[in-house]
UniProtKB/TrEMBL annotation:
<dbReference type="GO" id="GO:0046872">
    <property type="term" value="F:metal ion binding"/>
</dbReference>
<dbReference type="GO" id="GO:0005737">
    <property type="term" value="C:cytoplasm"/>
</dbReference>
<keyword id="KW-0963">Cytoplasm</keyword>
<dbReference type="Pfam" id="PF01814">
    <property type="entry name" value="Hemerythrin"/>
</dbReference>
<keyword id="KW-0479">Metal-binding</keyword>
<dbReference type="InterPro" id="IPR012312">
    <property type="entry name" value="Hemerythrin-like"/>
</dbReference>
<feature type="domain" description="Hemerythrin-like">
    <location>
        <begin position="82"/>
        <end position="221"/>
    </location>
</feature>
<protein>
    <submittedName>
        <fullName>Iron-sulfur cluster repair protein YtfE</fullName>
    </submittedName>
</protein>
<dbReference type="InterPro" id="IPR019903">
    <property type="entry name" value="RIC_family"/>
</dbReference>
<dbReference type="Pfam" id="PF04405">
    <property type="entry name" value="ScdA_N"/>
</dbReference>
<keyword id="KW-0408">Iron</keyword>
């Protein structure tokens, strides 16, 4: 979905429901502003804002902050890469999951009788959120400060734990895909349902990119230094990866 974010051009003339689906995270802004993107999603953002007496340019500026790029910038140091991970992924995951949980609860409640309703999705997302928050806290409080200080011979142990938890995160993404037909909404899905699945696709894309940067770019250089073993881009023998 990240690639879609790059291609999607924000336009006040676009239907608010279309924006909600094309730009994951927009639903949270619309709900806060009490803009009906679901049942009333066929009208333009310009009209929806005017009806509420809101400044559409201010809304567009806030929506623009949700647009993301898949491009991976180059970093002069591990510390710069860590700061990028914190800003681009840790903060983003913390913002993504509460909105996804709220939408999943709504879809499960409103469409409880639909044969394709993802029963249990909200509960799974709550579980994912709890595990991810705990994981990121370990990185922020223990591993990343250790890496920023240059690492040490024992750094392979917390890195190994993070790699193991990354595997668990991947298993959770498999559960999400199985529960949501690979995050594909039914043909008659409402705007909220379609926006939910678009947001789930973005969460999955972001989490995979997040894990890739840590497993294949950040961790190997410290594992190599700590063990004296050569580490390739796919992982290190010392980590069991």
């Amino acid at each position: 979905m990240n690639a879609g974010n790059q291609e999607f051009k924000l336009d006040a003339a676009e239907a608010i429901g279309q924006i909600a689906v094309a730009l994951p995270g927009a639903t949270g802004i619309f709900r806060r502003l009490k803009l009906d993107y679901c049942c009333g999603g066929q009208i333009s953002l310009q009209q929806a804002a005017a009806d509420k007496g809101l400044d559409v340019q201010t809304i567009l500026a806030e929506l623009a902050t949700l647009q993301r790029s898949d491009a991976t910038p180059q970093f002069a140091s591990a510390a710069e890469l860590i700061d990028h991970i914190l800003l681009r992924f840790h903060e983003v995951h913390r913002a993504q999951l509460p909105e996804l949980i709220a939408m999943a609860k709504r879809v499960e409640a409103v469409h409880r009788d639909h044969p394709e309703t993802p029963a249990g999705l909200a509960a799974l997302l709550v579980e994912i959120e709890g595990e991810l928050l705990e994981h990121m806290q370990k990185e922020e409080q223990v591993l990343f400060p250790m890496l920023k200080s240059g690492g040490n011979p024992f750094v392979v142990h917390p890195i190994g734990m993070m790699r193991s938890e990354h595997v668990e995160h991947g298993a959770n993404l498999d559960k999400l895909a199985a529960l949501t037909h690979d995050m594909t909404p039914p043909a008659d899905a409402c705007t909220t349902w379609r926006a939910l699945y678009a947001g789930l696709r973005q969460l999955a894309d972001d989490l995979v990119s997040h894990i890739h940067l840590e497993n294949n770019v950040l961790f190997p250089q410290f594992e190599a230094a700590a063990t004296g073993l050569g580490c390739g881009p796919g992982g290190c023998a010392c980590s069991g990866a």
